[in-house]
Design goal:
Length: about 240
């Protein structure tokens, strides 16, 4: 058959006799689309984790700076009585600065606000209303979110570690004596004598609470500590 004849036969070939598309091509296209979707989802999740790690820390630091300024102003404007000590007859209003809390092991320090509502705890640890004030006989109880920059690494605190709390005129040092997990409804940890219903307190204690485990809240992590020392702050330190 001549070359011209072959060309004529090829031109007359029906369309349905052309080589079929490989059967697996559609499957690979689906796999490709799914792969792209997984990649995009992974990038979104990576961005979310990055924000949770660094974005919230930035927000927290900015809010804490503002609270520090409010605290200095509040403590600096408190009226003094005869001996030069500030007259503090009423607790701070909800959301107002109440104390300074620092944990040397974590290298972190916060202005603590009064109250434990969601609004109060958004950018600061919060003092449980009705519990003792710093250094007072009873239980100074503070809650904080389990987020980076706040109580994220609270589980690393061990007995013997120290926690410092400051009010307008004094600095209190507490020594940790317990690190434990309780149910979220175990309110006994907030009693004046923790875990002893109906008992009058005989010592000054500190209790820190946060969610457990990380990224969830079906338990509570409790750090308990007892007061080991108390000292007056100098005039220059009062509003630091």
């Amino acid at each position: 058959m001549t070359t011209q004849r072959l060309a004529e036969v090829a031109e007359r070939r029906p369309a349905d006799t052309r080589a079929p598309r490989p059967r697996g091509s559609l499957r690979w296209r689906i796999f490709g689309i799914c792969g792209e979707a997984v990649l995009i989802l992974g990038l979104v999740m990576l961005g979310f984790v990055g924000y949770e790690t660094w974005g919230t820390v930035g927000e927290l630091n900015a809010a804490q700076s503002q609270l520090d300024q409010e605290r200095r102003t509040l403590w600096g404007n408190e009226p003094a009585v005869g001996g030069g000590q500030p007259a503090v007859d009423e607790p701070p209003a909800d959301g107002d600065p109440a104390a300074v809390l620092s944990i040397p092991r974590l290298g972190l320090e916060w202005t603590v606000v009064e109250g434990t509502t969601s609004k109060d705890l958004r950018h600061a640890p919060g003092h449980y209303a009705g519990t003792a004030t710093p250094g007072q006989i009873g239980n100074f109880a503070v809650a904080g979110h389990r987020v980076h920059g706040m109580f994220w690494d609270l589980d690393t605190i061990t007995p013997g570690d120290q926690i410092t709390v400051e009010d307008r005129t004094r600095r209190y040092v507490y020594e940790v004596d317990e690190n434990r997990i309780v149910r979220p409804d175990d309110v006994g940890v907030l009693l004046p004598a923790p875990g002893q219903p109906g008992q009058a307190p005989t010592s000054a204690r500190l209790t820190l609470t946060t969610c457990n485990p990380k990224w969830d809240n079906y338990q509570r992590l409790i750090i308990g500590a007892h007061l080991v020392s108390s000292a007056s702050k100098s005039a220059g330190e009062g509003t630091r």
